[in-house]
């Protein structure tokens, strides 16, 4: 196992971030002494932190603090609670301060033939991507922005239902922390209390009929500030509001513990091994829904998913199957 921490413009600010991460108030003088710099230099660094969306608070006569603190990503902490099989399968763990998109970074590695078994995390994404070209809001230190690379033999047909199975893995990871009211929305969302908590974005490279490379991108909201989340165009949930105090590092380890063995065995097991678990968590089971793809729409009652992960929709007594792609699902009031 290898660990990589990529340098970024934020790297010089890590020491002051680590001092403020406890959420306590630190005077400019104390920060300067700890960092070996002047108070003026400390002030310049703190101004830069605010540019990254961190809620720095200045208390007159006392100093500065990050309300609520900040848990920085740590390879040591992630490895400390990683499951044994996942630890064997994880070839490299990469931690970034900032990237445009974790999926984009890992896709580049896959093209170079060195992305298999790599997990890539970033504290912040400047251009995070969701499904169907949507932006994924991922400010510094809030939530999880994770991509995993894996190569499969047998072509794209072996990957049917994979995004749904990944949703099951995320739900199982959340279950380890007793997160309540977790549900799954076809084809690639994790919901909590009727709102979106996490999304999955799969991107493929290589020969889609033989050996292909897949990047599984996972975004999960945890600690989003409401003023930043105004860019989100749908109802959203935040893990720290639902179940405060869950460690990001421990949750990353739990997701990898569930997901890496799934990827290792998926070409043999397929989605059928996860179908029952998915259907038990189906957010819209038995409900009227509308599907949309471009200008086309279909309405009916959601009646589960097939063994290949297709949504089953009962339309006037006829059950039809719909596969993912550009199709979106909405519940009917």
Automatic annotation (TrEMBL):
Superkingdom classification of source: Bacteria
BPL/LPL catalytic domain: residues covered: 75-267
Enzyme class: ligase
Keyword hit for Plastid: no
Pfam families, per database record: BPL_C (PF02237), BPL_LplA_LipB (PF03099), HTH_11 (PF08279)
E.C. number: 6.3.4.15
GO molecular function terms listed in the Swiss-Prot or TrEMBL record: biotin--[biotin carboxyl-carrier protein] ligase activity
Reactions catalysed: biotin + L-lysyl-[protein] + ATP = N(6)-biotinyl-L-lysyl-[protein] + AMP + diphosphate + H(+)
DNA-binding region: 28-47
InterPro entries given in the database record: aa-tRNA-synth_II/BPL/LPL, Bifunct_BirA, Biotin_CoA_COase_ligase, BPL_C, BPL_LPL_catalytic, HTH_11, Transcriptional_repressor_C, WH-like_DNA-bd_sf
Keywords: ATP-binding, Biotin, DNA-binding, Ligase, Nucleotide-binding, Repressor, Transcription, Transcription regulation
Gene3D superfamilies: 2.30.30.100, Bira Bifunctional Protein, Domain 2, Winged helix-like DNA-binding domain superfamily/Winged helix DNA-binding domain
Coiled coil regions in record: none
Binding site for biotin: 101-103, 125, 129-131, 196
Functional note: Acts both as a biotin--[acetyl-CoA-carboxylase] ligase and a biotin-operon repressor. In the presence of ATP, BirA activates biotin to form the BirA-biotinyl-5'-adenylate (BirA-bio-5'-AMP or holoBirA) complex. HoloBirA can either transfer the biotinyl moiety to the biotin carboxyl carrier protein (BCCP) subunit of acetyl-CoA carboxylase, or bind to the biotin operator site and inhibit transcription of the operon.
HAMAP family with a match to the protein in the record: Bifunct_BirA
Recorded family membership: Belongs to the biotin--protein ligase family.
Name of the protein in its database record: Bifunctional ligase/repressor BirA
Organism this protein belongs to: Microbulbifer variabilis
């Amino acid at each position: 196992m290898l660990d990589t921490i990529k340098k970024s413009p934020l790297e010089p600010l890590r020491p002051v971030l680590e001092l403020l991460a406890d959420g306590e108030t630190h005077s400019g003088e104390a920060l300067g002494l700890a960092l070996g710099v002047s108070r003026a230099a400390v002030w310049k660094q703190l101004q830069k932190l605010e540019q990254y969306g961190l809620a720095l608070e200045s208390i007159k006569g006392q100093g500065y603090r990050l309300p609520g603190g900040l848990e920085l990503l740590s390879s040591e902490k992630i490895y400390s609670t990683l499951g044994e099989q996942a630890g064997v399968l994880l070839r490299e763990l990469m931690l970034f301060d900032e990237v445009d998109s974790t999926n984009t970074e890992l896709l580049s590695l896959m093209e170079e033939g060195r992305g298999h078994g790599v997990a890539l995390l970033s504290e912040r994404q400047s251009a995070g991507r969701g499904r169907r070209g949507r932006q994924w809001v991922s400010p510094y230190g809030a939530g999880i922005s994770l991509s995993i690379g894996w190569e499969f033999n047998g072509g794209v047909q072996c990957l049917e239902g994979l995004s749904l199975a990944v949703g099951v893995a995320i739900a199982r990871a959340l279950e380890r922390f007793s997160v309540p009211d977790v549900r799954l929305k076809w084809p690639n969302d994790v919901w909590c209390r009727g709102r979106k908590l996490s999304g999955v974005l799969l991107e493929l490279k290589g020969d889609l009929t033989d050996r292909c490379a897949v990047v599984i991108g996972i975004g999960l909201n945890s600690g989003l500030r409401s003023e930043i989340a105004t860019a989100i165009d749908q109802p959203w949930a935040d893990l720290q509001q639902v179940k405060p105090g869950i460690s990001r590092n421990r949750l990353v380890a739990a997701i990898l513990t569930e997901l890496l063995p799934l990827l290792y065995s998926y070409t043999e097991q397929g989605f059928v091994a996860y179908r029952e678990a998915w259907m038990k968590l189906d957010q819209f089971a038995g409900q009227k829904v509308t599907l949309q793809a471009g200008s086309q729409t279909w309405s009916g009652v959601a009646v589960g998913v097939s063994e290949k992960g297709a949504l089953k929709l009962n339309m006037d007594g006829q059950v039809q199957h719909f596969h993912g792609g550009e199709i979106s699902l909405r519940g009917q009031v």
